[in-house]
Design a protein that fits this description.
The protein is of the alpha/beta class and 316 residues long. β5 and β6 form a beta hairpin. It starts with 9 loop residues before the first strand and ends in a 17-residue tail after the last strand.
């Protein structure tokens, strides 16, 4: 006899007289025959994320020797060995410079993310922003950026060459940003919009007419800058509007405990702990539908990470 299993199924037990439940992971039996949607017809959630670590890949230890479903697990792929059938490894990319100078640690990264290289004259958004525009308008945060190095400038997410999305560097600050007072539990029985959110949205809405008047009074270059600025304001308005509506339920959402205020820095032990906490918070931000797009910088492009007791020499 086959027992019907759904996404709402839970593992129930009793520990020392106290009832406890555990949510099940995403199992094949929850999906349709093609594995592209839930059996009930709901589409699988779409998420996009990037992890970046500078100077971190040794091709001889990273790139599999052969392609195919059963690709080789090289030494640097060992951490994902048990997920091999769910992970595609894409290698041997090349950024064509078209005469632009090769800027070490920069040209390849920017070229891969934007389709253009520094010095080419193109002023394009990074890939994650295009994805966020397509799938992130219905979430509280279009995207989340974090840097485990302690430097908010370590971000490779950009609207254009002059508008970089600054990274969050503290796990505690990231927690407060996502799960602080403005967080609305999607599984809560009651929903009460934050009055301050309504006020902020009203202020932004009231200046709508003045936007057009100001744009008509400035030159072309200022008009382009203002257009970028007001585009960002419209995005803020959309996010505030979402916070005034009861969020849809999210079965996997569990509000995590606040992390401790840890030391932030470039020592590898600090970076590793910061990364561990950041990854946990981002995973739950995705589960709670707070965002669909994220970017993690483990180390910057030239890698400022260091061992305890060592210093990093810089030149100016």
């Amino acid at each position: 006899m086959m027992v019907r299993t759904t996404r709402r199924s839970l593992l129930r037990t009793c520990i020392r007289g106290t009832a406890a439940t555990l949510a099940l992971p995403l199992l094949d039996c929850f999906l349709d025959d093609n594995g592209t949607a839930f059996a009930g017809g709901a589409p699988l959630p779409v998420r996009f994320g990037t992890w970046f670590w500078g100077c971190g890949v040794n091709p001889t230890r990273w790139v599999p020797g052969a392609s195919g479903r059963d690709y080789e697990i090289t030494p640097e792929l060992l951490p994902i060995a048990k997920f091999r059938e769910k992970v595609n490894i894409l290698t041997n990319f090349d950024v064509v410079l078209d005469g632009a100078p090769n800027m070490a640690h920069i040209s390849g990264n920017i070229g891969f993310r934007t389709g253009a290289v520094p010095g080419s004259g193109a002023d394009l958004p990074s890939l994650d922003m295009l994805v966020a525009d397509a799938v992130g308008s219905a979430t509280r945060f279009k995207s989340l950026e974090v840097a485990c190095t302690g430097d908010p400038k370590h971000s490779y997410s950009l609207r254009n060459s002059s508008t970089i999305n600054a990274s969050e560097t503290s796990p505690l600050a990231l927690y407060q940003r996502i799960f602080g007072p403005e967080f609305q539990d999607p599984n809560a029985a009651n929903f009460v919009p934050d009055p301050q959110t309504r006020i902020r949205k009203s202020i932004l809405s009231e200046v709508g007419d003045e936007r057009q008047q100001l744009i008509s009074q400035v030159g072309a270059s200022d008009r382009a800058r203002l257009d970028q600025y007001f585009t960002s304001l419209r995005q803020v308005e959309q996010q505030l509007e979402l916070q005034l509506q009861k969020p849809p339920p999210a079965e996997a959402c569990r509000i995590p405990q606040s992390p401790k205020d840890i030391a932030i820095g470039t020592e590898i032990e600090q970076v590793t702990e910061t990364h561990r906490l950041m990854a946990q918070l981002i995973a739950m931000a995705l589960a709670c539908n707070q965002t669909k797009v994220f970017n993690v910088v483990f180390s910057d492009s030239a890698s400022s990470l260091r061992r305890t007791g060592t210093t990093r020499r810089t030149t100016s």
